[in-house]
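We emphasize that the prediction below concerns an isolated chain of 125 residues; any contacts that depend on oligomerization or on bound cofactors are therefore not represented. The input was used exactly as deposited, without trimming of termini.
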Amino acid sequence: MNKLQVVETNGLSEIVEIDEQELAKSYVDLKSATQELNFKFDMYTRRLLLEGKLIGVKIQRKGFSKWYVERASIEAYASKARSGMRRYVLRIDSENEEQVREALSKLKIEYQLELNYKGKSDSEQ
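Result of the prediction step, given as a token string:
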């Protein structure tokens, strides 16, 4: 069994060893991960790795290093992206609340409404 040296894991410098068979079974290279995620550029996938949204390792081999992304994390990220759920927080004045609620209902948008109540400041009293 050939052991490879991991020099970085999701932005954290860490020196550990991983079995080459385990790497081939559980990980894909950065280019393949980018294609599976339907991204145009590798830098998008690399950014997700560094942000911790994907799990991956950086392997040092013969004078160069290469990122590998865990297959399970690609699937988890892709399924989350496919679900299309995005979180929007709206901050509106209370006098516009009813109009905003009606508009969001017509568009069938799930939302969390945060109202901005205008109170009197100490100087106005």
